[in-house]
Specification:
The structure holds two protein chains of two kinds. Chain A is built from nine helices and twelve strands. By secondary structure, chain A is α/β, with parallel strands linked by helices. A two-stranded antiparallel sheet of chain B has the order 1-2.
């Protein structure tokens, strides 16, 4: 398997509390990888470690062939973009001004705006369908629109790898689907490697090419959704009984959790 | 090309600009020039424009030349330099802390400079109340005080940089501490020194000489140049910490660098001018309202508006209170104090 990101024996602690314990993982290039698991399992921490926001107490993360510790901030930002879970920008910013910021790692004092910048921003705006909103201020947008702007910024960064930390948390169901459809389109049409933290097991199964299930800071299982989302694994990872069926529309596994007392 | 933005190329420099913002910056520059001219023309004797120009090119009457070149021009230039420094210092602080209330005055940095000036005057006086070192070291003392007090606020707020009100509270506490120290030093120190320090503390522009203008000018140009270089980085720091990290501006030293630059700019201004307050609070807000947030135009605009504010304050005190020399800082505080109150009472203003 061609690897976009490789983690070797990664351990991370917050103070004295270990959060990730000896993680070995290979994230496939050109695929949508979903990191999933119960609350507090360490999935957001894992994403933060991949993006070098946390320094692991042991182990190594490699992007392609390169240890991320050997890359400069700028080099890393040209290879891996990140959409934060609680991304926030000043209200006065326009849509265009925020999307344009995605170009920062490619610019310099003399090259503040090149043709490459214009092309990347244009492509990002087109992919996210933002052309009619370009001059709007951020505080006039709905939550769904705002998330699209952030995705466009990340896209304008023009990196082979995109990391998304719970991108659909505060969206209604229509916008959740819109967002994930967009993410998949980026993967299929623009060959982006996507690493995304998701809460919802069924949406994970629907959009993932490759899934990583975490529990208590350890990788519990990896594989395709078909391999992974089974009644046994759900019991093991989430501690609940469930029935897993094949969904009648997309043929992906669909988990129906069973109430503790029916 | 895209909406109000236009790409442009100047030799090796490739940029994006907004024609409207560029025009507004031009208007602001004109305003500052007009205020500076008015400042030179106005005083105990009115000197018309033609005689000012004659004096400037060395063809004026001897008296005109003395008044224009030796007395009034340094004063006007110092107002421009100090205003620009204070405005940009406020802008950097507001961005570094992601807090619209941050500014040299609110964070207690100006008062910190005051403590240092008093300590300087007292420590280096001999038994006869005369200074043992040159008075030209006073600006250096003020600068040191400003830097130390900003460092103190930064250290106190290191964990809570994103909680706007808390940061302001630290600033208020530090400023209160500085003011208490100032009072104590004034009461216990030599009387002559106290009156000398009072003028500095209130921020007065009279008695500025060319030597001071030259030093302040060099420092201002250098520091504003560095500010121009870090503007793009500062725009990215406007986002939340994690998004900024994703764009390659994750190192905490970036924010620290903005603090240090702001401290040096404040120090440059207050060391020569004294405690002119609230310019650093108001100038960035006005510039953002006029020119938008994330641009180089915002930086230039902030500097120009800061200059215009200090020039106006100085003009007002001279027009209303002459021949008594009321410090310009009194006017900026009269406007800036209520403005700060307005900001504090306004709702939903947490994201700088």
């Amino acid at each position: 398997m061609d690897s976009a990101v490789t983690l070797a024996d990664i351990s991370v602690s917050y103070g004295a509390t270990p959060v990730l314990k000896g993680i070995d993982l290979v994230l496939p290039r050109g695929q949508v990888t979903v990191l999933a698991g119960p609350n507090g399992c360490g999935k957001s921490t894992l994403l933060a470690t991949i993006r070098r926001m946390l320094r692991p107490s042991a182990g190594m993360v490699a992007v392609g062939q390169d240890d991320i510790m050997t890359l400069s901030e700028r080099q890393l930002a040209r290879r891996m973009a990140l959409l934060a879970q609680h991304a926030s920008a000043p209200d006065e910013l326009s849509v265009f001004e925020l999307v344009k910021m995605g170009r920062f790692p490619h610019q310099g004092f003399l090259r503040q705006w090149t043709d490459a910048d214009a092309r990347a921003v244009e492509a990002a705006v087109e992919a996210t369908d933002l052309a009619p909103l370009l001059e709007r201020r951020l505080d006039t947008l709905s939550g769904g629109q705002r998330q699209r702007v952030w995705l466009a910024m990340v896209l304008a960064q023009d990196t082979p790898i995109i990391c998304l930390d719970e991108p659909i948390n505060h969206l209604d169901v229509a916008h959740q689907l819109q967002c994930l459809d967009l993410v998949r389109r980026l993967n299929r049409d623009m060959k982006k490697t996507v690493v995304v933290v998701l809460h919802d097991l069924n949406l994970s199964a629907r959009y993932a090419d490759f899934m990583v299930l975490l529990k208590d800071g350890r990788v519990q299982a990896t594989g395709t959704p078909d391999d992974l989302v089974t009644e046994a694994t759900v019991r093991e990872v989430f501690g609940i009984d469930s029935r897993v069926i094949s969904d009648p529309v997309y043929g992906r596994p669909l988990c129906i959790p069973l109430s503790a007392r029916p | 090309m895209i909406g109000s933005h236009r790409p442009a190329r100047l030799g090796l420099l490739q940029v994006m600009y907004r024609p409207r913002a560029l025009a507004l910056v031009g208007v602001l520059a004109g305003l500052v020039a007009a205020l500076a001219l008015a400042s030179v023309a106005l005083g105990s004797t009115w000197i018309p424009l033609s005689r000012i120009l004659a004096a400037l090119v060395g063809a004026g009457a001897e008296m005109d030349t003395l008044i224009v070149v030796d007395f009034r021009l340094p004063r006007a230039l110092m107002a421009v330099l100090a205003g620009a420094c204070l405005g940009v210092a406020g802008l950097l602080l507001q961005r570094a802390t992601r807090n619209p209330l941050a500014s040299p005055t609110v964070l207690g940095i100006v008062d910190g400079g005051g403590v240092a000036v008093l300590l300087f005057l007292i420590l280096f006086s001999d038994a006869d109340d005369s200074l043992m070192v040159s008075i030209h070291w006073q600006p250096a003392a003020a600068a040191l005080g400003a830097v130390v007090f900003l460092g103190l606020v930064f250290w106190l707020s290191r964990e809570q940089r994103t909680a706007p009100v808390r940061l302001i509270l630290y600033g208020v506490a530090v400023a209160a501490l500085a003011k208490a120290a100032i009072t104590l030093l004034m009461v216990t120190g030599p009387v002559y020194r106290a009156s000398q320090a009072t003028r500095w503390l209130a921020g007065a522009l009279d008695g500025v000489d060319w030597m001071e203008v030259r030093i302040a000018g060099v420092l201002t140009v250098l520091l504003l140049g560095v500010a121009a270089l870090v503007t793009r980085r500062m725009n990215v720091l406007d986002l939340d910490e994690i998004s900024a990290h994703g764009l390659g501006v994750g190192n905490p030293l970036n924010r620290l660098g903005l603090f240090v630059l702001a401290a040096l700019l404040t120090a440059t201004a207050v060391s020569f001018l004294g405690g002119i307050g609230f310019v650093g609070l108001m100038a960035p807000h006005l510039a953002t309202a006029l020119l938008g947030r994330p641009t180089g135009a915002g930086l230039v605009g902030t500097a120009l508006i800061g200059a215009a504010l200090v020039l106006s304050a100085d003009l007002i005190v001279r027009a209303l209170f002459a021949p008594i020399e009321v410090p310009a800082g009194a006017v900026t505080a009269l406007v800036g104090g209520p403005y700060l109150l307005y900001l504090l009472t306004r709702k939903g203003s947490t994201h700088g």
